[in-house]
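#lab-general

N.A. 3:47 PM
ok so I finally got the sequence cleaned up, no stray characters, all 172 residues accounted for. can someone with queue access submit it? mine expired

B.Y. 3:52 PM
send it over

N.A. 3:53 PM
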Amino acid sequence: MSQNVYPGRFTADVQRGSVTVFLIGMRANRWWKVAKVAKVAAAMPRMLRHLAGDPASGMLGCEQWFGRTTVMVSYWEGPEHLQKFAADRESPHLEPWRRFMKEVAGSGDVGVWHETYHVPAEGIETIYNGMPLFGLAKATAQVAVGPGTNTARQRIGRRPAPGAGARPAGTP
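B.Y. 4:20 PM
back already:
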C-alpha cells in the first residue's frame, strides 16, 4: 500500500478545545487457543466499519498495530461520544462485549484492555517528520512546523491558530 509521504516537519492542528484518546487492545495469553483469540479479534473490524460510516459517532480516526498484544489508538471528539458508542444497544459493541464477558472473561485465554484520556488541546504536542498522514494529524489536520512551533517546548501548551496552514486529514 502506497501512502504519500510528506517531506518536512508537521504537527497536528487541534482546533477543538480537547481530544479524547482511547487506547484499546487484546492479548493472546494462550495463543494456541486460536479459535477463541480469533473470535475476540473478529469483533473489532465490524465496530470500525460502523464508526467510519457514521461521522456523528465522534470518532475522528484510529491507528492499529497487531501482534500477540494488539494496540489501537483512536481519537474522539469527546468522552461522551465514546461512552455513547459503548453503551448503545444498536451499535456493534455491546453484544460482543457481553459475549466476551460470558464466554472468555476469567478464563485467562484472551485479555482485553483499554485506557481513556481526555486531553485539552494545550496539553498536546506532536511531531511528524517525513511521514504519511498519521495519528492525531491524520484524525484532525496536519500543519507545517514554523516559527513558534519548531520545538516541543514551543508546541506544548500552545494552540495553533485556526486555519493557519492546516492541511485537513486525507489531503495531500
